[in-house]
């Protein structure tokens, strides 16, 4: 997540509770993060697996990605 | 079999032709045995291709010439069923499966296959000879794969015009062509932007030693950055770009050193000798006097355009150029032009990558210009962010060591 933010000239705050809207982490950033994870894994992520939920904070994103990886 | 002698004047028959380091002329090239007609002559080298072409020009036989590697077994079968005898590089002939009357003077070209499998387009030496009138004496580089439209353009120019020599570059010589060109005094060269970019990237000094007076680009979208780089290396040369294809012939020729063509060319008065250009939606449409057989009338080129001030830019193929990022559309060609405008980038390819949540994202492959120091993903993202909407900024950038190139001198951009 930090790399995505850095590439956009922004900084990822340290707290998991940081609000995504406030730090400017948008849909495109989320998609890029997913692509980076796919590149690391060498496999496509299955976004249907974890089910829909509200993703509002940095912690939500990290939990979601973790779930995707283990799905 | 046809043995009628054509009246097309082989004015260039005594022009110099350099093949594999040997200095010959069209007239003194080795002769092929009498070819069947129609024949598909598959070659492994440029000399055999030129010999086949001269045979066609002298005898009027129906000819398709191509490199052996471009014509797979399936296409050979299709050609056999369409009446072509297949002539292999060692002279072995597979007779046609269909017997038919030949079309005297017919030359067949294979399209580059950028839209799928290569297609056959019918021409004649006359329809392929788009350069007429007195030309300044030149020695032309011939780097193109035999049988492509660009190859036919150069060889017909040399065979039908005085003082237009040729220096043939075989595939195994492509990396060293500037040294060969300098040795043989090449003054004119035509190649794809990929071809030129590779030459600059490999060794701009050796390239600069070629006494080029005429530089031509074609076969791929031509961006401003490559035109500017060539201008730096060759400040006095005429730099032209050509929009040409097997289907519509050479239809747009631009000499002003700028990418794209003037917008007012879309409203020029009709002239029988000049192609009529128009736009439908985002697509370039051409009515050309140089068209292939059966392609009279408006040809939808499948190429996408974009207006930029008083210019019309050709950005790429319609089916691959538009990238839809979560409902916002961006042209891969436009993104590529922005990347290529970065001084640290030698080459770039931009494409759509399947992505969660937004469907597609813009991704890129880049070859950095090592002479200008390292560049990072973040450098390029920042460069693009200040020039493109956020959905157009490439999110995944892969760095490659060298510029990929196909036999057609294109790089799938």
Fold blueprint:
The complex is a heterodimer of chains A (71) and B (413).
Chain A: H1 2-7, H2 20-23, H3 27-41, H4 58-70
Chain B: E1 16-19, E2 22-25, E3 39-43, H1 46-59, E4 63-67, H2 73-81, E5 85-87, E6 93-94, E7 106-110, E8 120-124, H3 125-128, E9 138-142, H4 149-160, E10 164-168, H5 177-183, E11 188-191, H6 193-208, E12 214-218, H7 224-233, E13 238-245, E14 249-254, E15 261-262, E16 276-280, E17 283-287, E18 298-308, E19 311-317, H8 318-321, E20 322-325, E21 328-331, H9 332-340, E22 345-355, E23 359-368, H10 377-385, E24 396-399
Parallel strand pairs in B: 1-10, 3-4, 3-5, 4-7, 9-10, 11-12, 12-13, 23-24
Antiparallel strand pairs in B: 1-2, 5-6, 7-8, 13-14, 15-19, 16-17, 17-18, 18-19, 20-21, 22-23
Strand residues, percent of chain B: 25-35%
Q: Write the H/E string of chain A, N to C.
A: HHHH
CATH topology of chain A: Non-ribosomal Peptide Synthetase Peptidyl Carrier Protein, Chain A
Number of helices of chain B: 10
Strand content of chain A: under 5%
CATH architecture grouping of chain A: Orthogonal Bundle
Strand order of the largest sheet of chain B: 6-5-3-4-7-8
In terms of quaternary structure, the protein is heterodimer
Q: Roughly how much helix do the residues of chain A carry, as a percent range?
A: 40-55%
Instruction: Please tell me what the overall shape of chain B is.
Output: globular
Runs of chain B in which pLDDT lies below 50 for 5 or more consecutive residues are: 1-7
How far apart the termini of chain B lie comes to 42 Å
Summarize the structure in words.
- The complex is a heterodimer of chains A (71) and B (413).
- Chain A is 54% helix and 0% strand.
- Chain A is built from four helices and no strands.
- Chain A has helices at 2-7, 20-23, 27-41, 58-70.
- The longest helix of chain A has 15 residues, at 27-41.
- Chain A is globular, with a radius of gyration of 12 Å.
- Chain B has three domains: 17-127, no CATH class; 130-316, ANL, N-terminal domain (Rossmann fold); 319-399, GMP Synthetase, Chain A, domain 3 (2-Layer Sandwich).
- In chain B, the strands form six sheets. In chain B, strands 6-5-3-4-7-8 form a six-stranded mixed sheet. In chain B, strands 15-19-18-17-16 form a five-stranded antiparallel sheet.
- The A-B interface holds A 6-9, 26-28, 30-32, 34-36, 39, 44-45, 47 and B 325-326, 353-358, 361, 363, 377-378, 381-382, 385, 390-391, 395-396.
């Amino acid at each position: 997540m930090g790399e995505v933010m850095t590439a956009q000239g922004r900084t990822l705050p340290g707290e998991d509770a940081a609000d995504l809207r406030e730090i400017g982490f948008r849909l495109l950033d989320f998609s890029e993060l997913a692509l980076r994870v796919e590149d690391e894994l060498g496999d496509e992520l299955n976004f249907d697996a974890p089910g829909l939920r509200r993703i509002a904070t940095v912690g939500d994103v990290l939990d979601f990605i973790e779930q995707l990886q283990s799905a | 079999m046809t043995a009628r002698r054509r009246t097309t004047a082989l004015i260039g028959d005594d022009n110099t032709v350099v093949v594999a380091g040997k200095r010959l002329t069209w007239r003194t090239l080795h002769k092929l045995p009498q070819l069947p007609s129609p024949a598909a002559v598959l070659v492994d080298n440029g000399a055999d291709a030129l010999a086949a072409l001269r045979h066609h020009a002298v005898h009027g036989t129906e000819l398709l010439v191509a490199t052996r590697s471009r014509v797979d077994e399936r296409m050979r079968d299709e050609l056999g069923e369409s009446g072509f005898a297949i002539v292999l590089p060692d002279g072995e002939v597979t007779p046609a499966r269909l017997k038919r009357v030949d079309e005297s003077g017919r030359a067949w070209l294979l399209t580059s296959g950028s839209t799928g499998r290569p297609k056959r387009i019918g021409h004649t030496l006359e329809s392929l000879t788009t350069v007429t009138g007195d030309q300044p004496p030149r020695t032309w580089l011939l780097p193109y794969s035999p049988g492509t439209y660009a190859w036919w353009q150069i060889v017909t120019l040399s065979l039908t015009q005085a003082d237009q020599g040729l220096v043939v570059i075989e595939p195994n010589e492509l990396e060293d062509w500037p040294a060969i060109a300098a040795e043989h005094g090449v003054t004119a060269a035509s190649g794809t932007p990929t071809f030129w970019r590779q030459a600059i990237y490999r060794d701009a000094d050796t390239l600069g030693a070629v006494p080029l007076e005429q530089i031509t680009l074609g076969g791929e979208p031509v961006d401003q950055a490559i035109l500017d780089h060539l201008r730096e290396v060759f400040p006095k040369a005429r730099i032209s770009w050509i929009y040409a294809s097997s289907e519509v012939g050479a239809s747009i020729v631009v000499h002003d050193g700028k990418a794209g063509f003037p917008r007012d060319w879309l409203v020029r008065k009709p002239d029988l000798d000049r192609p009529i250009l128009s736009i439908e939606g985002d697509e370039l449409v051409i009515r050309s006097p140089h068209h292939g057989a059966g392609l009279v009338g408006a040809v939808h080129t499948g190429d996408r355009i974009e207006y930029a001030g008083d210019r019309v830019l050709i950005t790429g193929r319609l089916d691959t150029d538009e990238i839809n990022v979560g409902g916002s559309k961006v042209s891969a060609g436009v993104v590529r032009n922005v990347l290529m405008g970065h001084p640290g980038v030698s080459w770039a390819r931009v494409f759509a990558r399947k992505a969660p949540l937004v469907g597609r994202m813009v991704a890129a492959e880049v070859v950095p210009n090592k002479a200008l120091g390292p560049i990072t993903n973040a450098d390029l993202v920042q460069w693009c962010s200040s020039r493109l909407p956020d959905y157009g900024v490439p999110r995944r950038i892969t760095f490659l060591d060298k510029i990929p190139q196909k036999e057609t001198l294109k790089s799938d951009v």
